[in-house]
Structure formats: structure tokens, C-alpha cells
Amino acid sequence: PAPIQTQPSNLRHTKHHAGTRQPFPASFQPHTPENFAHNVGIFKDRAAADNCTPCDTKSVLPPPPRYPSHSGAYGAIGAGIAPMIETNNILSNPEGPEYQFLVGEGTYVLKECLHLATPPPHPSEAPVVNPNPLATTPQPASAGTKLSLISLDVRAAPPFFYNKGASTSTTLSSSLGGDIQEHPNEGRYSTEAGLSSDGGDGRGASLSDGVAPPTSSLTMVSAPAFGDGNSALAPANTKDAAKKKVAKPKNNMTKSNSSFISRVIVNESLAKKLQERPTDGVFAFANINRAFQWLDLSSPTKADYLTKILFTKAHCLCHDVNPITKNIAHIDVIMGFSTGEIIWWEPVSQRYTRLNKNGIINGTPVSEIRWIPGSESLFLAAHMDGSLVVYDKDKEDAQFSPEEEQLATNGSSTNGESDSSTNGVNHNLKIQINKSVHSKNQKTNPVASWKLSNQRINAFAFSPDNRHLAVVSEDGSLRIIDYLKEELLDLYNSYYGGFICITWSPDGKYVLTGGQDDLISIWSVVDSAIVARCQGHQSWVTSVAFDPWRCDDRNYRFGSVGEDCRLCLWDFNVGMLHRPKAASVHHRGSVSSRFPNPLQRQETANTSASRIRSNSTLSGGAVDEDGSSIVHPVEPRARIAMLPPVSSKAVDTHPLCWLEFTEEAIITSCKNGHIRTWNRPTDAPVPTEGASQPS
Predict the structure, then answer these.
(1) Residue 648 CB neighbours (<10 A)
(2) What is the sign of the dihedral through the CA atoms of 16, 18, 22 and 28?
(3) Which UniProt keywords apply (predicted)?
(4) Cα atoms in the Cβ-side hemisphere of radius 13 Å centred on 36
(5) Model confidence over 412-470: pLDDT tens digits?
(6) Could you tell me which residues are beta bridge partners of residue 569?
(7) For residue range 393-419, what is the model confidence (pLDDT) as tens digits?
(8) What is the pTM of this model?
(9) d(CA 14, CA 680)
(10) What residues pair up with 472 in beta bridges, in sequence order?
(11) The 3-state secondary structure of 100-169, one letter per residue
């Protein structure tokens, strides 16, 4: 909101009255836009009585309507002041050349801007008055507006990953050295991802985050379920699995008396809207400060939320929707909060369950949360103390302390050999397993708990083959983890500062990271090396995503947004990238080829624990027993290809924090709650005069 404009002359006049006269009579009303004319009349009368020259009333502007920064507005009725009414979402359709930008394939045009209403602080929340920017006291965790997109119907898939048939899979498999083989006892496609070649089960072309899941040859090997082999995690056998009742949360959201939830507003026409909406429409779940909204992006009145939840003090920092359990009558949503607590919410029935209540398992904020691929009940949460915790939505919580038998750290020696630091970085090799997924104690949460770092984890992403996990932290580290085996595979470091965001390429061969060095880095998982850095942002990069509708077996399109308010689009081709001179010539196959099948490589607990040793010939690195490097030194800029963007456009006036590609558009969001939808180029001619040119 615009600041209140007051002229210096008025300040002097106010001081004059304050020093010479008694306070204004009771007829003087609180200064609001509605009472402005009334108060000006009193002001002129008192000025005339004092033989004082009246002020130029035209130079005094009433305060603009805005949310108060203190709790007094909530008790305004008792003070005789009309209460502030919470505003609704605002949908606008800006037009003009400044709302377009050109790329090689055509012109992207802003379709609409949806501004989410920002809730005021709760009355019980103490206001923060003029915080010192240099203060060392920790500030409450917060996050900009992020969206979780879900479609309940089968949608068209990206053309390359689905429609090129067996020839594509053959090409990809040969390009990866032919190391990806089908196990004779495993299905053709990943049962964890619920994918099939023809989408016969209704999931092959479904949307999980607004983008259809890719089925490259990397996903053709069936990944085992997380915790497979642990009888304590095996689901109970049911004679009639087809009639198994879908589990729902325990508590009614609308009738909750929990102090954690302040208010729940459900659209009075919710049932009618759900019944009349198009079957291929997209739902969106969005957070903004202490509010969480359920929106229908396919509705012409999308500004009208289906449900809005206001929490008392906690801010929702992250959320995710389960693509496996979704249907017209059931949607599983998980939310991570600044208090460390987690809510499992089913919006159709308006029921919820609160997990990690009062931080009984981990009391630090949740920075990222995701359903484990293929699981109906397990999800992974990243806490800001550097921990990754696996929860089961159906289990009760219990006081958690690390299990003694799991205290040995993965990737470190038990005899202290590798703990003697090599250039001071070997401590980063440790994955401290506080509780293993193979533990027999699985009656309560957590299912598993791993400590990766002493600094916050900012983001993580599952690989398309559902076997690996990429994790980025505030300490500037990128870790590639085999989360099924709880094993660290690779560790990279940023050029400068911490990493903020991460994503996998649809074929699983590359990982993108963005961070505080204003760069996007492209990492080859197959070669265990950085292949390019992308320079185009002027501030921190907050989100990166691939565009699967413009990717093929050698060409990739991805986008990024940052705190410089810019949306950048990038194209890269494997052939145009220079291979680093220091790139290892080991492992030309898939990631799994570097860590063979356990039947081919038997390891005892002792050999597994001592598989990393110090090596003074590497720059702070460590090597596996087969000679492959796990820690990869930072490559200088002169030796790495630098990639410019194909388009760079300032698309908002506030720092951007989220980006996603759909078949029809690019969607961005900012920290102030603006959700902008940019339509892709169409066959119809679009006026491009004055449109932004690629930089």
C-alpha cells in the first residue's frame, strides 16, 4: 500500500494546535476515509477560532485502506471503530506490449493475474515494529506463494516422452551406454510411479504438479517400494483389496476447536462447483503467509476460493498433493509449517490430521515436503536443522530419540580413519542415520530420519526413476542420495553461497540447481560433473523447472525465476556443451551402474561403513573403493561452459519464488501473492509490436 502523504506545513500546524489548545472535542472522529470530510470541518472551525490560517486541506490525503500491522484492528469494535473486512482475491487481465515477451517459438502473452488476499497478523501475534536489518536474532521462517497443481483427469502428455514409442526408448538407452536393463522378475514400467505405456490405469498421463510425469527409459526399471523388505512396514493383508476403504484424516476442519487453526472459510457453493467443473480442469493449492487456499484454475471465477484456511500463528511454507490417491472424491494434501508441524488435509471431506504436534519429533520449520513416489501414505519432510524425516500419515507420533544401533553414519569410517578431515570437508560426507527405514520399530512416526547437515535444507527432488534424491542446502552442497539404500552417491559444492532450488530433467540425466550465486548450474548425473553454468539473473535464483513439452533426447528447455523479478528461459544441447577437462572418464553408464546390484557386490556392514577413505590427491575429495569420486571439487569458471538465456523478462514488480510449466502456459508466483499465467504461443498471429525481445 502507498504511504500516507502528509505535508510539512500540516505537521507544523498540528504541532501548533498540540501546544496551544486542548484536545479536539469528542465530535472529532478517528481519521478514516469515511470520516475525512467531517474532521476537516472541525479542523477549519478550530483554526478560525484560533485566528490561524487554515491548512491547504487538498494536500492532506486520507490513509489508504490497508491491513493493520497491529492487533488493535481486531478489537476495533470495542474502541468504536468499524472492523477491517478481509479482502478477496483479485483477478485481472492486463494487456499491452509490456505483458508479452518473444522467444524463438513465438510470443508468450500474459493471460491473467490472480492476486491472493494477504491476511493480517492474528490478534495474538505480537507485531514486529521496525526490525533492525542488522539484528542477529532469528526471524520467523516465511516463504513466498507457492502452488501445488493437480488434475483429476487424464491429460495429454508431453509429445516426446510418450508419443515417440519404442524408438525413443531405444535411443535413450543407447545414449546411456545400454546399462539400463529390465529385471526378468520386474514389470516394464515403474510400479512406484504408477505409469504404463498406454495410460490404461488412468495415471500414465496424469498431472501431479501440473506436468505429466515422464516415462523415459530411466523409469522402465521397476523401482522397489521405499522400505521394501521390512516386514514392519508391509501393509496388512486384506482379502478384498479392491474394497479397501480409503483412509481419511481424523478431525473435522470446519468444526475444529484447535488453537492451531484460526478460521476456515468454505465456499457456500462448493458441492455445486465440484459437480459442474470440467473434468480436465486443474486445482491449485496455494499458501500466502498464514493463509492456505484451495483454488479451481479452470473456473471462470477462479478468484473465488473453494476453501480458505487461516492459521493462528504458523505460516505454511510448503505443500504437496499425492498423485496416487487422487480422485473426484478424495485428495490428499500435506502442508509443512514454520512451527515444524505438519497437516494432512483432505479438502473434499474437510478433514485433517495434525502430525509432529508441538514439534514432538522435530521442532524446526519444514522447508520442503513431498510425497514419496508411489506411496499412498509416506512422505518426506526437510527440516531447517538439516534433517530429512519420513512420516506416515496414518501413524501416531511419539517422542523421538535417535536409535543407538543407527548412530553409525553412512559414508564414514567407524575406525575414525575418514573422520580425520581432508582439507576440512570430510564431515560433509556423513549421512547420520538417526532411524533407518529398515528399523523394526515402526509402530509410530518417524519411519526414518537422516541428518545431512548442520545448516538448513532448502529443497529436494526425487529422480524420475524413483530411486534417487537430490538435496540442496544452505551450506552450498548438492547431494545425490540413493534413498532406497540410504546411501550417499555424490556431493557437489556451489560456486558461491547456498543452493535454493533444484529439479531433475525429465529423462533423469541432468540436475539443475539455482542459488545465491545468481547462477543456474547444470549437473550431469551420469558423468558426475558440472557441464554448464547459466548466467542471466541479477539476484538469487529461487525456482527452476524443465519444460517437458519442449524437450527431446538431446535438446532441453528449462525456465528459472529469481528475486530480481525476472523469468528466464534457457535452451541447451548436449553437443554444444564443452566437456570439462577434469571430468572423470569413469562411469559412462547410468547411476545404477556405478552401484551394482547387491547380488553382484556383497558388502558386509564393516566394508560398507569403511568404503570412503581419505585421498590427498583430490581437492578435499574422497573416493569410493572402486576409485570413483564421491566429493567433487568446485570447477573454476574458466573451465566450465557459460550459457546465456534465450529470453529474459521482468514479469513482476515483486521477487519471484515459484515457476511451473503446463501444456498451455507458464505459471509464476511472487512473494506478494501474484499468480501470473503466461499463455504459450499459438498458431494465431499475435501482435508483437513493442513486445520484449530476448536478451
Answers:
(1) 21
(2) positive
(3) Repeat, WD repeat
(4) 12
(5) 433 333 333 333 344 456 699 999 999 999 999 999 999 999 999 999 999 999 999 99
(6) 559, 647
(7) 999 999 999 987 555 455 543 333 333
(8) 0.75
(9) 56
(10) 459, 478
(11) EEEECCEEEEEEEEEECCCCCCCCCCCCCCCCCCCCCCCCCCCCCCCEEEEECCCCCCCHHHHHCHHHHH
Average pLDDT estimate for 544-560: 96
Cα 224 to chain center, whole Å? 26
151 vs 203: CA distance, rounded Å: 11
The class that CATH gives domain 147-153+240-679 is mainly beta
Angstrom distance (rounded) from CA 281 to CA 691: 30
Q: Where are the domains of the chain?
A: 8-66, 147-153+240-679
Q: Which three cell numbers stand for residue 321?
A: 498433493
Query: What is the CA 234 to chain-centroid distance, rounded?
Result: 30
Q: Cell 517437458 sits at which residue?
A: 548
Q: Which residue has the cell 487422487?
A: 326
Tell me the three cell numbers of residue 196: 504404463
472-477-482-488 Cα dihedral, nearest 10 degrees: -150
Q: Are strands 641-643 and 529-535 parallel, antiparallel or unpaired?
A: parallel
Distances in Å between the alpha carbon of 684 and those of 462, 549, 665?
A: 38, 19, 15
How far is C-alpha 176 from the chain's CA centre? Answer: 30
293 phi and psi angles, rounded to 5 deg: -125, 145
State the cell numbers at 631: 566429493
